[in-house]
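Continuing from the previous page...

OK, I double-checked the sequence for Schlafen AlbA-2 domain-containing protein against my notes and this is the correct one:
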Amino acid sequence: MNTGRFNIDEFVSFARRINSDTADVEVKTASMALPKDIVETLSAFANCSGGTVVCGLSEKEGFVPVEGFDAKRISEALS
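Thanks. Re-ran it with the corrected sequence; updated structure tokens here:
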């Protein structure tokens, strides 16, 4: 699904159809804090051809937004 430009709406539709994230886009719930495995994910992307991490979606619930997700807090924690 590498179109050269990431479109979140297209990705979410695609992920829902295949019921999975992909090799180059990793979904993280990150509801209250960064997940413990975020470093492993970022390292794997850095050691390959890159990728995109999408926080605030629940893969288990069908790629729907996570209730209470605070994008600013997660962004600050990541930086």
